[in-house]
Known about the structure:
Elements (H helix, E strand, L loop, with lengths): L1 E3 L3 H15 L5 E5 L9 H4 L2 E2 L5 E2 L3 H15 L4 H4 L5 H11 L5 E5 L2 H9 L9 E6 L1 H8 L3 H4 L5 E2 L5 H9 L8 E4 L5 H5 L2 E5 L16 E6 L4 H10 L4 H5 L4 H26 L11 H7 L1
Parallel strand pairs: 1-10, 7-8
Antiparallel strand pairs: 2-6, 3-4, 5-9, 6-10, 8-9
Helix pairs in contact: 3-5, 3-13, 6-11
InterPro entries: FRG-dom (IPR014966)
Protein name: FRG domain-containing protein
Amino acid sequence: MEITVTSIEEYLQAIKKIKISENVPLLWFRGQNRSEYRLLTPEARLSFKTTESLLIIPGFLKHLNDFKDFCKKQCRKQLKVLGNPKDDLEWSFLAQHCGAPTLLLDWTEDPMIALFFAINKLDPSDTGVNVFVCSPENLNHSVSDNTPVQNYHGPVPVTEETRDYLLRYIHFENNPSLPLCIKPSIQNYRLTRQSGNFIIQGKDFTPFDLQDCGKFFHKIIIPRERFSYFKELLDLLQLNEQTIYGPQTPADEYARELRKLVEEKFIDTKRYFVNSQKNLPLDKVSTQQYSKNK
């Protein structure tokens, strides 16, 4: 479903219409500042296929370990405030909210927070910006027949029952190709203020909205000429970077540097494959080898 809105009343009515169509008590929202942007995790945005259809993906576990090592050395005093992550799953939650490249995509339970992210950093296309809407319950039940997943009405929480299953997604070990809605187990100011949740990447690096589960994603479009109206509304509600993000930490700065470095390496690597007269044999270049070289 795709709906264009020009006022806050129409925005709320669009959400109501989607909620009725999904027939669920809970919806998630994600604001994106160009209406043509697809639903891709940071790592998926930095992947590409060679002419031989070899999928080259970033070294996400190395990036996570780099972020984790930095925080343990440079942010020891702030770790408790940041949520004191216990394993790679919880470190991924923190890394994503700090801006590091991960296999996660942010979502919120608050439609006004999503509106803020759509409008805040205007990079508008001719058609405007959008807010994606989905039902975590319907999405999860459609993409997984795993018993722990089916036991929950809504996103999968991190529990003793589900932790190992979710860690396999992060470690990319025997995980399904399909995305999964999960509720984070750490809490800090930013996650709490943003009502933060995540969809975790499966092995399929196609945009979520173009996969078989794409029918569960709806789009609310805000035309370019209505940006000022919605921005004024957000300012009135005191939804701004200071209240949404809270205090910045060294982890935020490092995450931005790490992401910039990864993006630069992505450009260089892709240029190499594009400019090569012939690609290396498939057994000479693999995602695992590429990850180690990162």
